Amino acid sequence: MRLTEQQKKFFDTFGYLVLPGLMQDSVEWITREFEAVFKSRQDVVHDGSKRTMFPLSFIDQNERLCTLLDDPRIVGLCEGLMGADFLYEGGDGNYYSGDTGWHSDLMPTPGMYKALRHIKIAFYLDPLTRETGALRVIPGSHLPGDRFSDTLQKEVWQLCAGPEVPSVALETKPGDIAVFHHNLKHASYGGGKNRRMFTMNLCAFAHTPEQQAELEAEWRHYGSVGATKFHSEIMLRTAPPERLKHLKPLHALEPLMVECARAAQEKKLSLAGKA
Ligand SMILES: O=C(O)CCC(=O)C(=O)O
Question: Ligand 1 center to residue 135 CA distance, Å?
Answer without folding.
Answer: 7
